[in-house]
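Page 47, continued from p. 46.
Same chain as before, 372 aa.
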Amino acid sequence: MNTHVIFYATSCQYQGTRMSSSAPETKEHYNHSNVKFLGLELAPLHIPWHRRMETVSVIHWLTVFLFSGFICIGFCIYLLYTSFYWVSLLIFAWVYYDRKCSRQGGRRFESVRKWRVWMHTRNYFPISLHKTADLDPKNNYVFGFHPHGIMSMGAFINFSTDATGFDEKFPGIKGTVLTLQGWFYIPFIREYLLAASVCDVSRDSIDWILGKSGTGNAAVVVVGGATESLEANPNVHRLYLSRRKGFIKRAIVNGAHLVPVYSFGETDVFVQMPNPEGSRLRKLQAYLTKYIGFAPPVFHGRGIFNYSMGLIPYRRPIHTVVGAPIPTKKSVNPSNEEVEAVHKEYMDALVSLFEEHKTKYGIDKDKKLVII
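Result:
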């Protein structure tokens, strides 16, 4: 998951880039008002209460994703200049003392995974989880999640919460979504993520989940990472995978099964400012990714009271399909040839998964998955 994004509000330039009829907005035309003000298409005043709750739940997630880091760090710094400075010192001491938790399986609370707010978030798009094969809880798994999208909504809602029925569909399997380690240096928000079964994506963390936590564990890796978020545009299916082999090696080292996962619609919920390879914007984004570890997509969605511009994602369905497991032969020190062979098998399985299910979820039969 990315850590920061930039809001692009000049949406009038991109009205033509909104989704085609192949992937309709499931809510935007609900009780449509057709009222415009200053070029903005306004939302109707009278909508069902559950729709409002769904919007509030998504605003909650956006606040966590976009602003919580600044808020939490700023609050602690502010306290340092007050008579309550000792509170900040205690908080920083706890973060340091507990620094290994995100690399040792986290601090999962089932009650947090089952919060009703996640149900509302699921219903907003909506998000659904589709199973294609059983997973034996006697094994451990590495789920390769694709594509990254802007905020990896499908990864979090499907595998960190039980909003889409993960526990029922995959009994005995405990999913842990892995994200950037930097999140776990931020006071307060780290506790929130750890409680929701989120850990960092370091090698130590993956090895702990797969090798020191018994069986029935699934490490969920958003393989494309920050760089792939720059490819997140409606009707675009481009993955950074050809050189991403670290998760393959960790699976082999721990004898875990690999599971390809494709989330149809993940890239449809926001629109990015055009950033083709070689453009000034793309060069700047590549530079920031290289030196600060995350990519800042310049994007827009809809607003709270309008359908034209804002930070809120569009209401477009996300269908996350979990493929069949690929067994690996455990090897503590696998050769490059072994890793390459399993990597190719994984890519072939992912492409097959995409081809088998794409037409079910509004993708043209001639559309191909591009791996770069």
